[in-house]
Amino acid sequence: MDIFLQQIINGLVQGSIYALVALGYTMVYGIMGLINFAHGEVVMIGTLVTITVAGSLIKAGMPVALAGLAGVSASVLVCMALGWGLERIAYRPLRNAPRLTPLITAIGMSIVLQNLAMMIWGRNYLTFPPLLPKMDFEFAGANFTAIQVIIVLVSAATMGGLLLLVYRTKLGMAMRATAQNPAVASLMGVNINRVIAAAFVIGSALGALAGVMVGGYYEIAHYQMGFMLGLKAFTAAVLGGIGNLGGAMLGGILLGIIEALGAGYIGDLTGGFLGSHYQDIFAFIVLIVVLMFKPSGLFGEKTGDRA
Amino acid sequence: MSEVLLKAEAVAKHFGGVKALQEVSLTIRRGEIYGLIGPNGAGKTTFFNCMTGLYVPDGGGFVFDGAPLIADAPHQAAERGIARTFQNIRLFGNMTALENVMVGRHVRTKAGVLGAMFQNAATKAEEVAIRQRASDLLHYVRIEERADDLAKNLSYGDQRRLEIARALATEPKLLCLDEPAAGMNATETAELRELIEGIRRDGTTILLIEHDVKLVMGLCDRVAVLDYGALVIEDVPAVVQKDQRVIEAYLGA
Question: ipTM score of the complex?
Answer without folding.
Answer: 0.73
